[in-house]
Design a protein that fits this description.
single chain, 156 residues, alpha+beta, Aminopeptidase, 5-stranded mixed beta sheet, 4 helices, 26% strand, acyltransferase activity, transferring groups other than amino-acyl groups, GNAT family N-acetyltransferase, GNAT_dom, Acyl_CoA_acyltransferase
Length: 156
Amino acid sequence: MQIRFAVPADGDLIADHNAEMAYETEVRLLDNETGRNGVMSVLEDQEKGWYLVAESDGAMAGQCLITLEWSDWRNGHCWWIQSVYVVPEFRRAGVFSAMYAWISAEARCRPDVVGLRLYVEQDNLPARKAYRSLGMKKTPYVMYEEMFSENGEKAE
């Protein structure tokens, strides 16, 4: 398993995987153009974050996005692990474990990184079990959001 930073040429496949993950975990259909533009925006501007991909024999086996959150309480960045997707034929083969080990090791080498975080859809029990097995702990926080449509109005 090779872990590497994604490059713009990976963008279409990452966007496709994001759409598959959204449907699989939330039965949510993503707008293809918006999804591709969102992925490319990250791949072209590392201040927004970066994607990592896991490859096995040259095939993309998994991916995730890392974004930053500044913690004023800890005076450092928390790396948010997002858009985790493992291609079905590679599941239960240690793909995410390898990615998480890489992320954790890299984060621990950086003095400005104070921790790792992720959120998971509450009914995604296999993912929750996987994250616990890696040593992550459920937090006491509940997430709230208000999302906007393209015209700035409240989205459904």
